[in-house]
Fold:
Amino acid sequence: MSPIPAVWSPRCREHVPGAEIWLGVPTPGTEVPERVDVIIAALRAAGHEVYDAAPHDDSFLEAVHDPVFLDHLATVHETWTSSGIAEESGQHQVVPYVFPTAAMLGGIPASRAAAVHGRAGAFGYDTMTLVGPGTWRAARGAADCALTAVDRVVGGAGASYALCRPPGHHATAAAYGGSCYLNNAAIAAQALRGAGHERVAVVDVDAHHGNGTSAIFYERPDVFYGSVHVDPGAGWFPHYVGHASECGAGDGIGANRNLPLAPGAGDPEFLAAVGSLASSVRDHGTSAVVVSLGVDAAADDPESPLRVTRDGYRSAAEVIAGIGLPTVLVQEGGYHLPSLGELVTAFLSAFD
Structure:
């Protein structure tokens, strides 16, 4: 058997955050363009046929994201620059600084902020996730990667991989954060629904809870979301959600499952959780799977305290592949450049 097809876009390199503003301090970013380069090199070395992403209509994005939010992402950097705030502040990337939370508003309806630096916080929920001149093109390219991988699976491939960068699972319907702008996994799942799959599952193995994907489908029974991640209750992003008690709402009760792991957890705990999620996918009656493939639970990764090995990822992939359904794998996190490509290809090898 040959390695599964992979999809990429050179536009995914165009987002260059430069830094993250963490606790008010600029720190070097880890979600860097070089992530694309090391994964592409590993894919080609492993024999994967790599395809260019095809452009897709904005309707696929609007099926998941608020159109006002999409317009903001597409235009905010140009507006930021033309307003003069970039020169005045010395900050040439868009950074939110005030957030219209429910606690701030106290029940008063929010107006649209007149200043672009005020508006940024209406759509960006942290200060780490900056918007630069190439951010929209990169995020749009990543979404096209996910949709092209869906096209290949709908066309008959058993599995296809999308090299999405920036990642997406922290993006909600109307907000970006956690280094994510467009929710590629949710866009893929919705596209599979539109292609005729009545029930779809998203299995998220990134080290952090995919709060955006969970929120988008939280009240829907047709898309099951299951995640294994470091416990937010132990002080890890996204802090406020990702707990085992969250099981969906309304019609979506039972279609959301979180399996948080304690810091320091390794292969045994990770594999037990993935196996449990695979059982839930079968029980939900799904006909297609989207994998949010983060590899930042690896021991060497700087962004999590989990200790999953290369063999652990390969074994987890075998469990998911064993479900036996058409599968779209969407790249999420993974920030240790020396091991990133090897971890991704080890996971993909189970789907050959």
The CA atoms of residues 56 and 144 lie 6 Å apart. The mean pLDDT is 97.
